[in-house]
Every structure is written in structure tokens, then in C-alpha cells.
Amino acid sequence: MINNGDEIWVEIDKELLELPFSYHYEKEWVYEKWPIQLIIDADAGGGFEGTYSFTLFTTVVTGPFIMRDKGVKWKFALHDEKLFDKVGKLLGAEDVVLGYSEFDKRLVIKTNEMEATKQLFADENLRKFFINLEKFSLTCIEHLEEKGKSRLDLHIERSITNTEELKNIYTVFLSILNRLAIHPMQ
Known about the structure:
By secondary structure, the chain is α+β, with helices and mostly antiparallel strands. It has helices at 7-17, 83-90, 101-106, 114-120, 124-132, 163-179; strands at 2-3, 23-31, 34-43, 52-62, 66-67, 76-80, 107-111, 136-142, 149-156, 180-181.
């Protein structure tokens, strides 16, 4: 693992330039006390399975995510609204409304702590980032495979190999991580 700093982006940039047409790329480093993992995957298909690609920033931590100053275990999921979601809303599927009109209109939000989630997205620049991001999901949940751990994932349904774009996305990911009081890995 590599400690945080600009050197990680120099390495990532160099490694991304060497990727073949179809690839699976992973990089791990530590930000403060938290392990960060970047995964970029692109499969050009060519067979019956078709093509797919994604970019994922993730961290797994010991313990639950707890909203600063609230002391509650907190889970949320956020993604851009798709046609399926629009139909679901018409049929009465539940979606949290935080009170930020454009944000609420363009994104689907699920949470067990509405006030904590509203506080997280009070930052207008953070809301604008997600309003403009397409085909993504952001989740803050208890880890399904590892009891006693939680994970924060930002999953984008395209492979991103532009280092500047990755750095911008990573900055947003860290912004969210820094707003959560979490228990670092022991």
C-alpha cells in the first residue's frame, strides 16, 4: 500500500497509459487511516457476453459509519434517476426528499437518517457534482461479507482513465469520507 500524496497519482497516471484495450486495473493506498481502493475495469466483449466497464472508489472500515455530532449508525444510497426509477416513483416507490429541488429531482436517495443525509449534501458543490454525474451509485452501508465492517463505494458505470478526472472524483469521495465519523481499520 502507498501512503496518500501526489506520488500515488504519478504512479496511477503511468500505469493507466500502459493498459491494454480490455483490462482490470486495481490500486490500493492509505488515506490518513483508511484503506482506499481504486478499481477500473473494461471488457470489450467480443463474445456473447457483451461489453461492460466501470470505475470504483471504495474503502472498508471497522465499525459502522456514524454521522459526526449525531452518534447514529448511518446508511445511505444515492444514484442517478433512471427510467425504471421514474416508473417506480409513479407507482409509489419510496425516495427520500432532502429539500434540494434539482438534487431531489435528478437523483434517487435512500437512507435511514434523513437529517444526517441532508446535512451531508448541504454543500452546493457536492450536490452539483452528483447532479452532473451520470450512471453512478454512491453507497454507505454495512459490509455484507465482513461482519462488523462498513464500506463507502462510489461506482461509475464507465472506465475512467483520465487521471485529472479520477483526481476530481477522488476529491469528492474524500470529501464524503471526511464528513463521516468512522472507525479506522485496526
